[in-house]
Amino acid sequence: MTTLNKLTGVVVGQYGTAIVLEAVDDDGIVIDLSSYTAVSVRAISDDAQKTLSFTGALVGGGTSGQFSFTPAVANFFDRSGTWKGQAEFTKTSVVDLTIVFEIIVEKRI
To answer: Is 59:68 a contact under the CB 8 Å cutoff?
Structure first.
């Protein structure tokens, strides 16, 4: 099974800056993502009223288990709460790895 640490530090309305995550296995060992050709990230708000989709990117070729996605001006976290996230990694046109995680979105002050 593959896990991903809970994503924190996201603020309502934040966009234009890449959010970087790291994929690790159940023992905390980084997963080499370099064999994957595409990454997509989806998120749904805790009230299920907002769904976001992002095209992700491998960071440093993916060997360090890191990937990123970037909220945009028309596609950002618009409410605080605990969102559910899902990253899908594609290899030869097949979704080969899926990771589910939580995104803690804080209110803007």
So the answer is: yes
Q: Are the beta carbons of 61 and 89 closer than 8 angstroms?
A: no
| Residues 102/83, Cβ–Cβ less than 8 Å | yes
Task: Find the farthest-apart pair of alpha carbons in the chain and give their distance in angstroms, rounded.
Answer: 44
How many of the other CB atoms lie within 10 Å of CB of 5? 12
Q: How confident is the model over 95-105, as pLDDT tens digits?
A: 999 999 999 99
Residues ≥6 apart with Cβ < 8 Å to 5: 21, 22, 24, 101
d(CA 101, CA 25): 13
DSSP state of 60: G
User: How is residue 72 written in tokens?
Assistant: 């945009």
- Each residue of 62-80: pLDDT tens digit? 999 999 999 999 999 999 9
Global pTM value:
0.89
The second-level CATH assignment, the architecture, of 2-106 is: Sandwich (2.60)
